[in-house]
Task: structure prediction
Amino acid sequence: MDVYEAIVDKRDTRSFSPDPVSDEDLHRVLQAGRMAGSAKNQQLNRIVVVTDPDDRATLAESGKFADWVAGAPVVLAIVVPKEGGKAFDIGRMAQNIMVAAHGLGLASCPVTFHDEDRVRDLLGFPDDHEAPMGVGLGHPAPPEEEKQSSPRIPLDELVDWGRWKA
Amino acid sequence: MDVYEAIVDKRDTRSFSPDPVSDEDLHRVLQAGRMAGSAKNQQLNRIVVVTDPDDRATLAESGKFADWVAGAPVVLAIVVPKEGGKAFDIGRMAQNIMVAAHGLGLASCPVTFHDEDRVRDLLGFPDDHEAPMGVGLGHPAPPEEEKQSSPRIPLDELVDWGRWKA
Result:
């Protein structure tokens, strides 16, 4: 798929078919995440891949709006050091993962984990790390089950030229 | 360009030729930014496009490591409300912009603006907004002027399966 088409066509989607993600597709989306740039190329992000249904159910209970990840065949928890980890760089990595996934025909959405301790207890990362965000992905549910729209504001509302306009 | 190729091939680059970015290319990268998802589709990010050389020089003085944006033909300042703005969503938007730019043959890099007041004074956004990050972009300098490497850690160092490993 063309890069521009993949970027502008990607929508955050939280409904999945139960079909597993192939190892090959998973490898590609992880590589896409790996190649995201980071501040000073420090590469502080790490990814824990969660596919076990019970573990995904635990992650689904770890965020206020995370129910849907119980039905996502793959959940990628992005783990960062509390000291130095940057939400901007997590966002860059997540976007690479999700746009690459879309290019493979996979649906995806970010998820926020509000219950830091529960995620840590499950995944086993140390106290000086946290996993505030993750990505759920999988093959999309049939279109009749969920119609995504998420309309965007017009470009001239998003963009100002030279100076902020009132 | 293929989406996967664009994503894994993109490197953060801070050296540019003085050639201007065409209106068509700029429109496409802005559209790529516009289509980035955001928490609850709130779309709190706004973009101020800065091309004036004096204004870019001011932005270059607004960050600890921002010198290079004086030589970036286009600087996009991403403006968010202090209340509610999310660095994760800024990262998603910036990555869409930069991957789309790479697909068009444009070089780009994020920039951090540490001097919030200076950026606000220049661009004119209100006190309850900030522009912590931006993106500089343009046509790349000839390869002999800058050789980018930014090697990445191996995939098996980035990724754990099911549980965090020591």
Notes: Chain B has one domain: 3-158.
